[in-house]
Design a protein that fits this description.
There is one protein chain. With 106 residues, this protein is mainly alpha-helical. The radius of gyration is 17 Å and the shape is globular. It has two domains: 40 residues, no CATH class; 65 residues, no CATH class. Helices cover 68% and strands 0% of the residues. The chain has six helices and no strands.
């Protein structure tokens, strides 16, 4: 199974078990079709606040940071009374920790 297939299966299982949110499959299909027609731009990648390494380590960092951000919205809004995602505090702290850990484990 490819990495993307594994992520899709895991996401489908999380969605299936969710009690308070749901995915509108018809709207998702329409969005996917619209996005496929649009040209895409590579987003700016702020290397001051993000890890940049090999493609695999950069992807791992980005997926992990997005998971933290997605799962911690209430926490981020409570700490320091502001959204830490937009202040880059969380990005910088996580990048520093990630780089320290990946350097020590190879």
């Amino acid at each position: 199974m490819s990495l993307c297939d594994g992520v899709r299966r895991a996401a489908a299982e999380v969605s299936r078990r969710a009690r308070f949110v749901h995915i509108d499959a018809a709207r998702l299909e329409a969005l996917a079709a619209r996005l496929a027609k649009e040209s895409t731009q590579t987003p700016d990648y702020d290397i001051e606040h993000h890890h940049r390494g090999s493609p695999a380590s950069t992807l791992a960092f980005s997926l992990t940071l997005d998971s933290i951000n997605f799962g911690s919205v209430p926490l981020r809004r409570n700490l320091l009374g502001r959204d830490l995602y937009s202040t880059k505090i969380l990005h910088t702290a996580f990048a520093t920790r990630y780089e320290t850990q990946t350097a020590s484990t190879g």
